């Protein structure tokens, strides 16, 4: 099998494809989710990629023909309506059928929310394939992604629009995969574990607000002592330790990325009205002050 080639822009000649179009994102954002490139191809018989490893996520939807996809030691026969997902740092390969080579569309993306999002939708290297009886909605979304990236004079705006279409595409794939949605698993958990997961989500999103574990306990219907005990049993840390970790990690991100924010503003952004107390907690967590960490980050 051949190794994957670097994607080119627009319609190109490709000896392995009777039809080949790819559009690149010239300004992919370093955020939650950003499209890298998207394309469409109709391969020649027996054309294959891999074994190889990518450092990004890559989704293919088959719109005609058939082929074989392998990842995580498992093999999947895919045909019209099947979507398969390649995960970063996972050895994969795929090859077109000799008699009916496939015609597929694809999108590649990165982002710090990508792994969690795909896992929550029930997709992983061990469960990378889903089937759609009607692919018109999916095919339309791929066309919109490519159209957004094609010869745009505003690449930053194109990145925003393409990532929006990508989110809708992932939503549609999640609906097809509803039997494996992680969200549904909350319903079958014991009550206390379900409540702890809700507490984890609440703390993860509300870390910038004044938080009372007493108030959190009451809202979930548990005594503070009991909630703290069960929280530690499920997560390995107490609610306050979990909150501290969330706040400190977010502070590191702000110190790295938001250089215009003062230390007081960073402290306030992660739930500490007292910047001196924030600095004390930061030093305890990382062994240096916020100012020292920011200076080291700049040097790196």
Automatic annotation (TrEMBL):
Keyword terms, alphabetized: DNA-binding, Transcription, Transcription regulation
Residue ranges constituting the HTH araC/xylS-type domain according to the UniProt record: 197-296
Protein name: AraC family transcriptional regulator
Keyword Lyase on entry: no
CDD domains: cupin_MmsR-like_N
Superkingdom of source: Bacteria
Matches recorded under SUPFAM superfamilies: Homeodomain-like, Regulatory protein AraC
Keyword set includes Ubl conjugation: no
MF-aspect GO terms: DNA-binding transcription factor activity; sequence-specific DNA binding
């Amino acid at each position: 099998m051949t190794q994957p080639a670097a994607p080119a822009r627009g319609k190109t000649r490709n000896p392995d494809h009777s039809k080949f179009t790819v559009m690149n994102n010239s300004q992919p954002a370093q955020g939650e989710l950003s499209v890298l490139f998207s394309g469409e191809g109709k391969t020649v018989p027996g054309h294959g990629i891999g074994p190889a490893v990518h450092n990004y996520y890559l989704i293919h939807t088959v719109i005609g023909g058939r082929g074989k996809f392998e990842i995580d030691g498992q093999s999947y026969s895919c045909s019209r309506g099947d979507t398969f997902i390649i995960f970063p740092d996972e050895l994969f390969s795929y090859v077109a059928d000799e008699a009916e080579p496939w015609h597929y569309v694809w999108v590649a993306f990165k982002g710090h929310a990508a792994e969690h999002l795909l896992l929550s939708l029930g997709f992983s290297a061990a469960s990378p394939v889903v089937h759609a009886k009607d692919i018109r909605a999916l095919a339309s979304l791929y066309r919109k992604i490519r159209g957004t990236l094609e010869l745009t004079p505003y690449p930053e705006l194109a990145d925003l629009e393409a990532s929006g279409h990508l989110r809708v595409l992932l939503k549609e794939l999640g609906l097809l995969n509803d039997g494996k949605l992680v969200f549904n698993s909350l319903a079958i958990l014991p009550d206390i574990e379900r409540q702890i997961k809700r507490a984890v989500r609440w703390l993860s999103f509300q870390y910038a607000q004044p938080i009372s574990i007493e108030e959190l306990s009451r809202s979930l219907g548990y005594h503070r002592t009991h909630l703290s005990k069960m929280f530690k049993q499920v997560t390995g840390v107490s609610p306050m330790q979990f909150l501290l970790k969330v706040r400190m990690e977010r502070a590191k991100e702000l110190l790295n990325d938001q250089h215009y924010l003062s230390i007081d503003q960073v402290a306030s952004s992660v739930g500490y009205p007292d910047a001196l107390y924030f600095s004390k907690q930061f030093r305890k967590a990382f062994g240096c002050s916020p100012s020292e960490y920011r200076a080291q980050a700049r040097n790196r």
